[in-house]
Design brief:
The chain is of the alpha+beta class and about 200 residues long. The chain is about 35% helix and about 35% strand. It has two domains: about 5-85 and about 155-190, Alpha-Beta Plaits; about 85-150, ACT-like. Chain A, domain 2 (Alpha-Beta Plaits), CATH 3.30.70. Strands 5, 6, 7, 8 and 9 form a five-stranded antiparallel β-sheet that branches. It has a four-stranded antiparallel β-sheet with strand order 2-3-1-4.
Length: about 200
C-alpha cells in the first residue's frame, strides 16, 4: 500500500548530483512531492530531503539505488510518524480586507500566522506547520480574496536516532577530509532505515 515517505540523503556537494538523483525517480515514474537541499550539521556535507508517496518496497529499492551514486554517503527513508517535520507557507491578501475584517486577524492568530510585509495594496502572512495546517489556512483565506500562496519544501529531522549524524562527526574527527573516507566504511556502519 502506498504511503508518504521522507527520504534523507547525505552527500558531498557536487554539481550534477541532484540531476542524477532526480533521474532515478523519473525512470521509475515516481513523482517527487517535495524536495529540499541544505547544508547538514557536518561541514562540506549536504542533505537532501525528498518526499514521495509509494510502497515501502519501492522506497527501499530506490534508496539502495541512490546510495550507489558516487557522491552519496548515506540515504535513509522514514514514515511521517518517525520524523518531526514542518513546511513554511506565505499568504498574500488584500490589506483593505484585513483592515476591515477584524475576524480575519483573529483567524490568523488562531493559525499562528504573522505579518511579514504590510503595504497599502497587500499584506503577506507567514506560518509554519504541516501540510494539513497550511492547507486549512488557504481555504479560510480564500473567503477573504487570497491573492497568492506559496509553500516551501519539507524540512525534517528523525525522532529516535543519532543515526548518520553522529557517524559523520566521528569520521570527520578521525579524518579531517571527509571526502577521503571510504564510502564502504560508512555504509557498513549504518542501516538503510533509521527508526
Amino acid at each position: 500500500m502506498k504511503q508518504e515517505f521522507t527520504i534523507t540523503i547525505y552527500t558531498e556537494n557536487q554539481v550534477g548530483l541532484l540531476n542524477r538523483i532526480a533521474i532515478l525517480f523519473s525512470r521509475r515514474k515516481i513523482n517527487i512531492e517535495s524536495l529540499n537541499t541544505s547544508p547538514s550539521e557536518v561541514e562540506s556535507i549536504h542533505r537532501f530531503t525528498i518526499v514521495i508517496s509509494e510502497t515501502e518496497e519501492v522506497v527501499r529499492k530506490i534508496v539502495r539505488q541512490i546510495e550507489k551514486q558516487v557522491d552519496v554517503l548515506k540515504a535513509y527513508y522514514n514514515t511521517n510518524d518517525e520524523i518531526i517535520w514542518q513546511e513554511l507557507a506565505l499568504y498574500k491578501v488584500p490589506t483593505e480586507i484585513i483592515a476591515e475584517k477584524v475576524k480575519v486577524e483573529r483567524l490568523l492568530r488562531t493559525y499562528g500566522a504573522r505579518a511579514v510585509v504590510i503595504r497599502k495594496d497587500y499584506t503577506i502572512f507567514e506560518t509554519t506547520g504541516q501540510r494539513e495546517e497550511t492547507d486549512t489556512l488557504i481555504k479560510v483565506l480564500e473567503q477573504f480574496s487570497l491573492i497568492e500562496f506559496v509553500r516551501s519544501a519539507r524540512v525534517a529531522i528523525i525522532k529516535d536516532s543519532k543515526g548518520f549524524h553522529e557517524k559523520l562527526k566521528e569520521f570527520e574527527q578521525a579524518e579531517p577530509q571527509i571526502k577521503n573516507i571510504e564510502k564502504t566504511a560508512i555504509l557498513d556502519e549504518a542501516d538503510t532505515k533509521i527508526v
